[in-house]
């Protein structure tokens, strides 16, 4: 009997875990470097990322300085999946229409992409695919039909290719607070003919309740925008993370969790129940059955479980707009009510008998000192 509270606590944790078995990460836009032909040398890449108050979106402007040793067509393949809008490409300031890569492309039909080593088969049964990485556990097998290209001739010499679009943030709902991230894969650059230099410019106009961090290390300068310069690939992907900051009070309640609310509610309700039982027995010491005991044994367990269920929304309200709200089917906590109710009744029945004996003994002592 003394281990009952611990058992109930573990059962509540198991219920909460099973209700959240779906992935807590909601992928956003999957943007990545281009797949480049080995016939084209990329001398420089500049990635400008602008995040405004709406942290769920960011604007990307990516520029490639390329050198073509000879006239060539279809120099770059773009991943254009799950982007918000306005995916635009220009060469030397001239807009270029984009075309979809046919699903049936197998490298032997007239529409071929010679020199694209990044689009070779990593698996024997998946020809002309590539693996793109956005995190330690976030990869995608990219097929040609998820790519686009422009059909323009590049004359011999150096050209500036610009890409711009708006992308959606990734959202991690694994905790009480939603963590936002913007991810850009650099992994296709491993297949380029050459890698000259990489400049990353990050500008963010954020509300004060969000803290920004990246996997690029500290920015060499201070203030906004932040700038990084690399002479080699710093990683397979860039991750910009935005984490909400909360007050000390909200943080304390978040850490105590629903279990803290439930423990406080249980202590108060049990105390009130015992006090009411004592008052009833003091007024009617000879009463065989205590309606206060019976009614309280039905109501108190119900209220304790209700507080546990409702406290999720109370904590979310205190955390504000960045609360994840991902708590599963917490109403299922009431499956424990048929177990908790008779156990609680038995314990309070023993307490009622003890109260009755004490009051009877005290009354007897007053009559016969």
Concise description?
With 369 residues, the chain is an alpha+beta fold. 30% of the residues lie in helices and 30% in strands.
Topology at a glance:
Blueprint: H1 4-18, E1 25-26, E2 31-32, E3 35-36, E4 41-51, E5 57-68, E6 76-79, E7 85-91, E8 94-96, E9 99-100, E10 130-135, E11 138-142, E12 147-149, E13 157-168, E14 170-172, E15 179-185, E16 195-204, E17 210-214, E18 226-230, E19 237-244, H2 248-283, H3 291-319, H4 337-367
Parallel strand pairs: 2-15, 4-16
Antiparallel strand pairs: 1-14, 3-6, 4-5, 5-13, 6-12, 7-8, 7-13, 9-12, 10-11, 14-15, 15-19, 16-18, 17-19
Q: How many domains, as an integer?
A: 2
Distance between the termini: 38 Å
Percent strand equals 25-35%
Alpha-carbon Rg, integer: 32 Å
Structural class call reads alpha+beta
Identify the CATH architecture of the largest domain.
Sandwich
Number of strands: 19
Largest sheet: 7 strands, mixed
| Strand order, largest beta sheet | 8-7-13-5-4-16-18
Can you tell me the residue ranges where pLDDT is under 50 for at least 5 consecutive residues? Answer: 14-19, 107-111, 121-125
CATH topology heading of the largest domain: Immunoglobulin-like
Number of helices: 4
Mind telling me the CATH class of the largest domain?
Answer: Mainly Beta
Mean pLDDT: 80
Helix proportion range = 25-40%
Explain how this protein is built.
- With 369 residues, the protein is of the alpha+beta class.
- It folds into 2 domains: 25-244, Immunoglobulin-like (Sandwich); 248-367, no CATH class.
- The chain contains 4 helices and 19 strands.
- It has helices spanning 4-18, 248-283, 291-319, 337-367; strands at 25-26, 31-32, 35-36, 41-51, 57-68, 76-79, 85-91, 94-96, 99-100, 130-135, 138-142, 147-149, 157-168, 170-172, 179-185, 195-204, 210-214, 226-230, 237-244.
- The chain has a 7-stranded mixed sheet, with no helix packed on it. Strands 1, 2, 14, 15, 17 and 19 form a 6-stranded mixed sheet that branches. It has a 4-stranded antiparallel sheet with strand order 3-6-12-9, with no helix packed on it.
- Helix 2 (248-283) runs antiparallel to helix 3 (291-319) and helix 2 (248-283) crosses helix 4 (337-367).
- The longest helix is centred in the last third of the chain and has 36 residues, at 248-283.
- The chain is elongated and about 110 Å long.
- The model is unreliable at 14-19, 107-111 and 121-125 (pLDDT under 50).
